[in-house]
Amino acid sequence: MIFCFSGTGNSLLVARELASRTGHAVTMLEREPLSHPSRHLFELSEGEDVIWVFPVYSWGVPPVVRRFIRKVKLKVLAGNGATLSDADASARHWMVATCGDDIGRADDQWRREVGRRGWSPRGAFSVEMPNTYVCMKGFEVDSKEIERQKLAAMPDRVKEIVEAMERGFSDSDVVRGDYAWLKTAAVYPLFRAFCMSPAPFASDAGKCVSCGLCARECPLGNIEMKEGRPQWGPACALCLRCFHGCPTRAIDYGKASLGKAQKPVYR
User: Fold this and answer.
1) Nearby residues of 229 by Cβ (< 8 Å), 6 or more positions away
2) Residue 204's Cα: distance from chain center in Å?
3) What's the rounded Cα separation, in Å, for the pair 191 and 267?
4) Dihedral, 237, 243, 244, 250 alpha carbons, nearest 10
5) How far is 65 from 72, CA to CA, in rounded Å?
6) What CA–CA distance (Å, rounded) separates 178 from 187?
7) Alpha-carbon distance values, 66 to 37, 72, 182, 202 (Å)
8) DSSP label at 194?
9) Of 66, 121, 101, nearest to 176 (Cα)?
10) Beta partners for 124?
11) Torsion-angle region of residue 185: left (phi > 0), alpha (psi -120 to 50) or beta?
């Protein structure tokens, strides 16, 4: 089983490539399962692997994915398919994280979360994909050429990952970057506390055409259309699908994203 959380589609593309090479089904973490993971039971076949695919958030695991790991119910089908047993270390868990450049120590964070559930974390991998973050000064999307290069390199990188999984690789094959520990231990919690509020989101009345695409596409169902304009609720994953997916470029994150380009949303 492949659990995938994706905002603008980077992780979705990787999950689909993994699915094509492994035969695993992709389960998207969106809407109800992501908002209320404890209400959902997912069944695994005996010996089935679990692959976690998600984007790195400020050198850490996205908070919504951490909450899902902590609360979701996994059950393993018995060999004859007749009964269920609690998921345990018999299922191997893998991490495949997408990033614009590097992931810090996000793999260690993921291993701790999986280990606390009594599951068996194995190999962790990173895949470089087009930049999406535009909510601070100095952060921009990639040029079209760099975006093209990253997308072209992705299938071969996923092929390497699948081959490592087949060998039983249990280490980390990731790009950490400089000051990896500091980024994950110090910058990530500050980012969570002070840089993930949906309050700065707003739509330009002169550009918004009330199409409702942002509300329909929000993976947490956090956007409502009121009097023809989007309104953001408090349960925001800051995935930026609304910003990058707006067909009229009507959405901004305060002044931080003004004038910045959109990245295509891969669906």
Assistant:
1) 203, 205, 208, 210
2) 27
3) 27
4) 170
5) 10
6) 13
7) 11, 10, 20, 27
8) H
9) 101
10) 95, 172
11) alpha
Q: CA–CA distance from 54 to each of 3, 84, 188, 265 (Å)?
A: 8, 28, 16, 15
Cβ atoms < 10 Å from Cβ of 136: 12
> pTM for the whole thing?
0.96
Q: Map residue 3 onto helix, strand or coil.
A: strand
Q: What is the C-alpha end-to-end distance of the chain, expressed in Å?
A: 20
Q: pLDDT per position in the chain (267 positions), as tens?
A: 999 999 999 999 999 999 999 999 999 999 999 999 999 999 998 889 999 999 999 999 999 999 999 999 998 887 665 555 565 557 899 999 999 999 999 999 999 999 999 999 999 999 999 999 999 999 999 999 999 999 999 999 999 999 999 999 999 999 999 999 999 999 999 999 999 999 999 999 999 999 999 999 999 999 999 999 999 999 999 999 999 999 999 999 999 999 999 999 999
E-strand spans in the chain? Answer: 2-4, 26-28, 41-44, 50-55, 73-77, 84-86, 92-99, 120-128, 172-173, 201-203, 223-226, 229-232, 251-253
How does DSSP assign 40-81, residue by residue? -EEEE-TT--EEEEEE-BTTB--HHHHHHHHH-EEEEE-TTS
